[in-house]
Amino acid sequence: MRTDNESQIEGSVPKELFFLLIKIVIIVMIAILLFTFIFGVHRNVGASMNPAVKDADMVLFYRLDKEYVAKDILILQFEGEQQACRVVATAGDTIDITEEGLVINGAVQQEEYGIPKTTRYEDGVDFPLTVGEGEVFVLADNRVNATDSRIYGAVSIKDTLGKAIIILRKRDL
After folding, report:
1. I want to staple 118 with a disulfide (CB 3.0 to 4.6 A). Which of 10, 76, 102, 124 is the partner?
2. Residues 77, 144: one domain?
């Protein structure tokens, strides 16, 4: 014979499981909303951003802050592929690539990220180039054979996906 306490316990287990399921669904929906509208995740492919972002690193980016400054890493879409690049110039800056390397507003840049010195591409954009309002000029850190603004020119801020906020390293095992 069952007591009233045993009947209440049996009745509360399905009820508790139902509420747990509701909580899990709510948490999943919040995560989906966050990573659809506020944050994004990019898996880096290739060595164009070495050493800052290596092949197979995951980059968490913030979609809502698109006020870029030089040295920011941003995520953009080019020919259907996401790529990470570093902002080197913003609206109003004049870019040139000479024998001395990258020149911004008449000053040769001490490139701490570029490996090796920045060079032009024969089929790329014409220099000097002045970055327009609402645009940024981006370069990959590892400039050898990288696809960046030397190929496709200044990037409209509207075409960027967001600013990198966290880089999660792939661990070599």
Report:
1. 102
2. yes
Q: Output the DSSP codes for 94-147.
A: EEEEETTEEEETTEE---SS-SS-----TTS--SSEEPPTTEEEEE-SS-TT--
Distance CA 130, CA 82 (A): 25
Q: Are residues 127 and 73 in the same domain?
A: yes
* pTM of this structure: 0.82
Tell me what pLDDT residue 79 has.
87
Report the 10 Å Cβ neighbour count for 57. Answer: 18
pLDDT digits (tens, 9 = 90+) for 14-24: 889 999 999 99
Domain that holds residue 63: 44-168
Helix (H, G, I), strand (E, B) or coil at 59: strand
pLDDT in tens, 60-88: 999 998 999 999 999 999 888 999 999 99
Name the DSSP class of 47: S
DSSP result, 145-164: T--SHHHH-SEEGGGEEEEE
